[in-house]
User: Fold these one by one.
Assistant:
Number 1:
Amino acid sequence: MKSSEINYTILSTFIAVHGATAWALWKTGFEYSYLGWAIGIYAIRWLGFTCAVHRYFAHRVCRTSRAFQFVMGLWATLTMARCPIKFASGHRHHHLHSDTSRDLHSPAKKGILYAYIGWVISKNYDEDRLGRVGDLKRYPELTVLNRFYYLPNVLLLVALYAIGEMPAFAYGGLLSTLLVWHVAFSVTVVFHCIGAPRYETYDESKNSLILGLLTFGEGWHNNHHANMASCRMGEYWYELDVGYLVFLVLEKLGLVWDVNKSVGSRIYRPVEDDTKETCVQIPIFDDAQEADRFAA
């Protein structure tokens, strides 16, 4: 990557958070009980990634009220992934150009290091350049969250320190941030390198049982690429998908509705099936009026 292509604001933030985490962990020391903070807050944040950032904002797998959409937006910002608009823009671009030279983070085309972290600090990762988020930009509250995504995280750090002092601050606040980041970065690489595909999606997406368990369902990546509009990534009982279960609970509570629960693909044939015709149809949101279908 050329120096002129680097977003130095993002790079400096990335370095600063790693440095602050190292200092806080050294200052706090280690006890096994502290890991509870890291694991607990990581779980909340990663569910925010898979449910809010990925499935709702990037793929619009259900409908909800405008008020609860804002709650989902707040949940999304806690991942520190520049949400909800920026990630949706980059991710929709990824599905449109998956594992081609135009893909932001294809390990096959861009190399493992760039696919892991290079694209995150690249100026190319920009919602104004990539577009396709007119359905999200029409909401002023979402554009504010997208711009000031760090503020809810600062408030979380303050709250954690007030509740549990340095152990909660260091492990629950800072360390969990790095865990979410590096798991998310790994997703872009590992899920296109390790595992086996169920569908012929014309990219390198794969399914992995172990990764599916570790990422609350994101590991059923080939299923997702074959049916990206579905909330359900795990298609069978043994493909545990915690993110999907969260949507079932939200639906039961009346907070979301019209949840897309479809299984299988009408576009791609299974790897072992030679009878089904295949075609490529990528649903991309580009019209601000599309938003009316999802946030009432």
Note: Residues 3-293 form one domain.
Number 2:
Amino acid sequence: MMTLRVRSTLRHLDVFLILGALLAVAAIFKASTFYNLSNLFAILEMSAVLGIATLGEALVLIVRGVDISVGAMMGLAGTLSACLLPDFGLGVAILVPLAVCAVLGLANGLLIEKGRIPPLVATIGMMWVINGLANAISEGRLIPIDNKAFQQIALGSVLDVVPLFFVGLLIVGGVAYYVRSDYPIGRYVYAIGGDEGAAFYSAIPVGRIRIAIYGVAGFLYGIAGLLMASYVRSGMPSVGRGYEFKAITAAVLGGIALSGGRGNIFKAIVGAVILIVLYGVITAFAVSPYIQGIIQGCILVGAVYYASRYY
């Protein structure tokens, strides 16, 4: 009985133990490099960007889907914003990219649900379409962002300690967790991923909810893209390259099941923080950046193996 209780506790705290272990390694071996204010500020900002993208991917995975267009939508959002800022101002440069990304997310959902195209194929196709659109808009070049208000999104902080980015992540994550816990739609999402047939015969609108989830995911990718554009002070179609795999890795690391229907949204966000902290530790140890891909691949495979055995 005690062993089962311990194992259950470890399953609930696993991501927090991993995060604590990484922070402890940094404190023991690279405290001066890792634990300085500018580095911690950057880690929180990048955690917010990846965390919001991971939240979108996690929702898709829960309804037994997958989305490979994450990075492309992030690049498009930043590129659109950079193009709109000089002539239309901050409001339009934020709202239009978010609306476009939400519509593209809905298009993903429609291709999958109505077109009966497998999620992997549909979202890879959309990734290429969105990349092409972003490159056509920017003519394949970096577009500098000089708008001070937009730059302030990345520079701003609460009490000069917590970046606005991270506050935004906590708000978005809190809203998602509240909807999951207190509204029927949250339970429907898990029901669809757990047993689509049973959900259908329970009068749950499976198709509409899955399409809506892809739309919400697109909206979240748009937010992540705008945050990244503010951080790098430019719009670049390639700025989100690779984020689809980082988001999947972070979600699975946080316990989101690739088979759908299971996983904790909050722990998925913690998974994103773990990845960013890991990259920070790797950088502090001056490990070659080329090794990061190897480590990320090993983490993804290990996380899937762990989840399949213990969740």
Note: The mean pLDDT is 87.
Number 3:
Amino acid sequence: MKRFRVFKVPFDKSVISRPGARFAPDRIVHYLGKLHLNVDYTVEEPKEDFNQYDVARAHTMIEEWIKGSITEETFPVFIGGDHSITFPLFRAMKERLYPDEEIYILNIDAHFDIREWEPDRITSGTPFRKILDHNLAEGKQIIEIGIRAFSNSPKLKEDARRFGITWYSLDEVKENLKDILQKVKGIIGNSPLYFTFDMDVMEGGCCPGSSAAHPYGLTFVEGLQIVDFVSKELNPIAMDIVEVSPPWDVQDMTSKAAAYLIGRFIRARGTKV
């Protein structure tokens, strides 16, 4: 049986909007520890302050740390941090454990995060473009749920179509989330899945402490429905949760929400891994 290992990844040097996500792992793990999950997990602390390095170097260090830490008996849950960390985390998983398999990516997010990048211009809006550019996955392996109108340029939408990314808008989610999840299952099947949850997809009223809070987003119940579906109906091999920003939070509500989503996921997967 695989062991749950929660990795703190406190890096936010590449956040586009407001920094503070580097403080999230400690807060989220604090509240995760208050949940009665009846599932064992360990918490892994980084040995370096990644924020003292430039983004490219920090990403390399994160990737090397994870490659040296995970085994086939590990089920990792990564807590960021800004969304840029998904690139080194995904590459570590792919190259260390799944070099010959196609890994699908399910991104719950208000944004595509496929912006163009350069070595000195890596941001929280570039992780999936980097995954594509490094040939770690094809566009058909990326599915995004929660894309918010007005928050993504026409060029990004056209790029998503050109890459072959499957995406569902927030408006579509509000109309019929259950149908969307069934469509996602039809695409992914039982293939290995990297599950990434960007908390800026949530309604700002329930989760004000994200890097890019907005009044229009997923409700907490919708977030739970997605997490429940992924954990019970799909074949996730890892999960990350990113873009919680405690300095902008109110009574730690966003950290508590992230902890609950992780706890729900761990408890559901606990009987399967």
Note: The chain has one domain: 3-269.
